[in-house]
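Objective 1b: paired records.
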Amino acid sequence: MSDKVELTRDGHIAVIMLNRPEVYNAVDLEMAELSLKHVLSLSADNSVRGVVVSGKGRAFCAGGDLKWVLSYPQGLAAGFHELVARFNQLVLEIRRMRKPVIAAINGAAAGAGFTVSLASDFRVMARSAFFQQAYTSAGLCIDGGGSFTLPRIVGMAKALEIMAFDRPIYAEQALSWGLVTEVVEDGQALDRAVEMAHDLAKRSMHSFGWSKQLVTDSYNASFETTIERERSGIRNCAAHPDGQEGIRAFSEKRLPVFVAD
């Protein structure tokens, strides 16, 4: 099996490490397919209570591998069509995963690296790292769900500014715009992301899964539909062992212990 994507475990936390440091972890078809395979497997693994995504070497991910696309036998457009189909499925499965996904942004996150970061639930960024939208400077439009996630994080006007001017967004600016959850010193992004994942793992995965799904689905639904989904969700959570433990712990004035899958 290819080692372009490494998968390791730290207790209940899985770490997906993009491993093409010689090309700044640029995404070719094989890397996209391996990443998707790991995300699908981890999503179905009840022993996993959080996932961290990071990159080996100096970059998080420099985007799509343009050399791979340029070498595609059927031409440039067909190459992008093939690669983006796999990459977009990866992003979709990250959003569907009912457990937290944290991007540990250790270096440059451009193009596909930017959009997979936006698709993650939380982002921890090294102080010297930066985002770059990158697509429009290459005469392309954004993919990986970026036209959906970016304006919902920073607003429509700022999203269009980011896409049109394609300036690098450094850590402190990213934090002030709400693009990242935390900024840490260089070399600490992965450790902090794993620590955050362990903290979340102590909480109810069932509750988190419902919360993530409700927030994601709310963008495509009316207010009435959303509150009906919330009612179904809270009823489901109240019937689940985690909900029952949480309510008992609150009434008994103690911390809850969530152990259910």
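Objective 1b, second protein:
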Amino acid sequence: MGGDGLSNASGDGRSGLFHEFTSVINPLLREDLFAKPQPMELEIGCGDGGFLFGYAGDYPDRQFVGVERLLGRLRKLEKKARREGFENLRLLRFEARYLVQYLLPANAFEAIHIYFPDPWPKDKHAWHRLVNKEFPEITARILTTGGVVHLRTDNEPYFSQMQEVFSAHGGFVHEETPTELAARRTEFEKMFNAKGIQTLRVSWRLT
């Protein structure tokens, strides 16, 4: 996570949209993120917000949490969101797997977005992949009943693995990604598509 587990501040003396971690052991409560309860969604690996910024702006009646390890990317997203007066966005600089498994509030998210995670294409590195056989159970912990995991990648072996692990879990059902959501492309996705690389996408709903 780039050093200590608590490095989540914006770095300029103001917290802004960043959540300030005071512990890497005690789980977060929903009200630690937002005072007013509304439908809440999570993007893991939000980068500089190519997807999340537009999505949060179009749905002010929903709340969004973006997770990213690289502080520079989060600062860029925060700057844009603060300029637009967003109040429905929180940014977390943290290692994603530990955060989802131990710290995020249970049964809190109606959707999880994971777009173009590192595919670790070499066989000897595949164990590094975020979406592995344990990941469906980890996501099930933080999803509401009926909550959905939306996945995208350009890597066919990783896409097959995503399909296999969620199918094997037994608690999720496969469904097509909604057309409106599929039309919202990330910056990486636009770049890949411009080169003729196909987006592989799927959604899994917790039953």
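The longest strand covers residues 143-153. The chain has a mean pLDDT of 91.
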